[in-house]
Design brief:
The structure holds two protein chains of two kinds.
Chain A: H1 2-8, H2 10-29, H3 33-61, E1 64-67, E2 89-92, H4 94-117, H5 124-143, H6 147-165, H7 173-203, H8 208-214, H9 219-235, H10 244-251, H11 254-279, H12 285-307, H13 313-337, H14 342-381, H15 397-410, H16 417-432, H17 434-459, H18 475-493, H19 495-511, H20 513-521
Antiparallel strand pairs in A: 1-2
Helix pairs in contact in A: 2-3, 2-5, 3-4, 4-5, 4-11, 4-14, 4-18, 4-19, 5-6, 5-11, 6-7, 6-11, 7-9, 7-10, 8-11, 8-20, 9-11, 10-11, 10-13, 11-13, 11-14, 12-13, 12-17, 13-14, 13-16, 13-17, 14-15, 14-16, 14-18, 14-19, 15-17, 15-18, 16-17, 16-18
Chain B: E1 7-8, E2 13-14, H1 16-35, H2 60-63, H3 72-77, H4 79-85, H5 93-113
Antiparallel strand pairs in B: 1-2
Classes of the chains: A mainly alpha, B mainly alpha.
């Protein structure tokens, strides 16, 4: 009976557990730092367990609906509601479940790392409270089936991220980065809210399924779509809306930066969800598909070319995060551009989307790993300036190995996971447009060149006298990096397992608008 | 069998395990050839010292090529591109917001008007 109650309320628990843990964190932190660490890590483990069980249910039994305040959690359309969903609803399909798996997996590794790397800092009650709020917000964003609810979680995510970016202060520079992020997010949030207002004014609903059923592609619907695309492209750091990313990613603590990648991907998820599920074939999919492709190509090229001359390790990696987002936009954009043509979709559209979505997962793992290795280096030598680094391979051997794994993965070198997703993108995009595939390959070569530079600058060369006292980072930080490194290797060696079991169902959930509407609205 | 089956893009196959196997075989062959050689290196002798045309060996910190000196040729070759793209990254918040408005405006024209 208890197990049944738990399993039937998993979507609510997914957000409630980190929220509850976040609000009690300052209180628990007063007992002792050890108790606080146990509390936060325990909450994260529990959240991860909930997400994994929920994902298992979704992948094995189909989409899970959770209606807040209903007599039964799956009662999406009450009898007296006039045939429409009127309550806040979580709609967890395979795409949502995949994003949840990514968020909690990276979250677990990052939190383990953070418990050690940020141990010496003050104000940790606030830090972990905001950190857990960020986790709850990301999980809410990828689970909700309600447009306004998505906006609420987007705002929580923005506020929590801004607080965490500014956490270290760094003579005001981190605060400036946090403020920039907050302002950009606020404008994006206002755009999104305005778009919701337009849709609500026309269709008198906020549920994505009922909106998708009623949407007409009127000029107002087009304006709403543009506002949402602009808002979410900004939040996911797509060029030319990426300017906040190098500032925010470089100034946030390493663990936070790794989670910011996941938060950006939740916005990317929002962009895909709105394009495919909310608008679907109703929209001018060729135009919007090409808009996403162009944003993707710009992100790939500008991101990598801006990364190469950088002299700050985290700023360099931030530009690479922008560049990698481009691959995801390119893959899914190609799928969207051929959405209305089933033959082309079968020929290469689905494969391009599988590549793009697999890249979301891979990027979260290897980029998280790379930011953690950057954090480990900064933790030991106290600077992020590449010009002041060198010879660290003699003293930080494990960190060097983890860095190599992350670097080879991001550069798309076999047999790491970055290659598997890029392989799918290259081959499918080539059929759509050979020029785009060639650009994607050149960007990978430039990425490798950039990381060769970082590897040489940081780890190669003789041991430098100024780093005489440098030693390897504490075990929990190594364990966290090792955890992500192992996942990078496993998903690289066995990509077919991930593609078949996680990615293909996610792609079909995203493209099957009729299935989504049928699940939520039933026969209504 | 999905564990070892190659990844198919619909047009090509990628089998990471076969690739690793091929790599391992190549490594074993290379190692076997290498081990057939004569070990003539003597640690701690003149063999281990760098040949610097008779110049004294510089300090350890001086021989490491720092990040700022790498890829000079690349950035110099693409100077025209970098002279345009770098100044766009002003670091000024109002510029960031202007970019959002510009892009939104262009998208509105593309999607709503055209």
């Amino acid at each position: 009976m208890t197990w049944e109650v738990i399993t039937s309320n998993l979507p609510a628990l997914l957000v409630a557990v980190p929220l509850f843990a976040a609000f009690l964190c300052p209180l628990v932190g007063r007992i002792s730092p050890g108790m606080r660490a146990s509390w936060v890590f325990g909450a994260m483990v529990l959240t991860a367990a909930i997400a994994y069980i929920l994902a298992f249910i979704v992948y094995s039994q189909g989409t899970v609906i959770y209606v807040f305040g209903a007599t039964t959690p799956d009662l999406s359309v009450p009898i007296d509601s006039g045939g429409i969903p009127i309550r806040i609803m979580f709609t967890v399909d395979a795409m949502s479940a995949l994003m949840e798996i990514i968020a909690v997996t990276v979250g677990l590794g990052v939190l383990l790392y953070s418990l050690s790397s940020d141990e010496r800092r003050s104000g940790l009650e606030n830090y972990y409270t905001i950190f857990l709020l960020m986790i709850a917000a990301v999980l809410g964003m990828v689970s909700t089936g309600d447009l306004f609810n998505f906006f609420v979680f987007l705002e929580i995510s923005s506020l929590a991220s801004a607080g965490l970016i500014a956490y270290r202060v760094e003579k005001g520079v981190a605060v400036e980065a946090g403020l920039k992020y907050l302002m950009v997010s606020t404008i994006a949030g206002i755009f999104f809210l305005f778009a919701i207002g337009i849709l609500y004014g026309q269709y008198n609903a906020l549920n994505m399924a009922i909106l998708a059923e009623r949407i007409q592609w009127t000029p107002l619907d087009k304006i709403a779509l543009v506002l949402m695309v602009a808002a979410l492209a900004t939040k996911c750091g797509s060029v030319p809306l990426h300017f906040w990313t190098p500032d925010a990613y470089s100034m946030a603590p390493a663990a936070v930066t790794a989670m910011l990648v996941v938060a950006s991907q939740a916005s990317l998820y929002g962009l895909f969800r709105i394009s495919f599920t909310l608008y679907g074939v109703a929209l001018s999919y060729v135009t919007i598909g090409w808009v996403i492709i162009i944003l993707g190509v710009l992100s790939m090229v500008v991101g990598v070319t801006m990364a190469i001359p950088q002299k700050d390790i985290k700023r360099l990696m931030a530009y690479h995060a922008v560049s990698q987002t481009g691959y995801m936009l390119l893959g899914v954009g190609v799928g969207l551009a051929v959405l209305g043509d089933q033959a082309l979709l079968n020929s290469y559209g689905y494969t391009a989307m599988e590549g793009g979505i697999f890249h979301i997962m891979n990027h979260a793992l290897y980029k998280g790993l790379l930011f953690l290795t950057a954090g480990a280096i900064i933790y030991r030598i106290g600077t992020s300036d590449l010009n002041r680094m060198g010879g660290l391979g003699h003293r930080m051997k494990y960190t060097m190995v983890f860095f190599m794994i992350g670097s080879l993965a991001i550069a798309g070198i076999p047999p790491f996971n970055g290659f598997a997703s890029k392989f799918l993108i290259y081959e499918s995009v080539f059929l759509f447009s050979p020029v785009l595939a060639i650009i994607a390959m050149v960007v990978s070569i430039l990425t490798l060149a950039s990381f060769v530079k970082v590897f040489h600058s940081v780890f190669m060369g003789p041991p430098l006298p100024e780093h005489d006292k440098v030693s390897e980072v504490p075990f929990p930080m190594l364990a966290a990096m090792g955890f992500l490194a192992i996942l990078v290797i496993i998903s690289g060696l066995f990509p077919q397992v991930f593609i078949q079991n996680l990615i293909v169902p996610a792609v079909h959930a995203l493209t099957n608008q009729a299935g989504y509407l049928g699940t939520v609205l039933g026969g209504a | 069998m999905a564990v070892i089956s190659p990844l198919s893009s619909g047009f090509g196959l990628w089998g990471p395990l076969f690739w690793v196997l091929a790599f391992a075989i190549a490594f074993i062959i290379a190692f076997a050839i290498w081990s057939l050689g004569t070990a003539s290196y003597k640690k701690g002798t003149e063999q281990g010292r760098p040949y610097l045309s008779g110049n004294p060996e510089p300090e350890k910190g001086a021989v490491h090529i720092r990040a700022g000196n790498l890829y000079w040729g690349y950035t110099e070759g693409l100077k025209g591109y970098y002279d345009r793209i770098v100044p766009l990254h002003t670091g000024i918040m109002t510029d960031y917001l202007l970019w959002i408005f510009w892009v939104t405006g262009i998208l509105l024209i593309l999607v709503v008007v055209i």
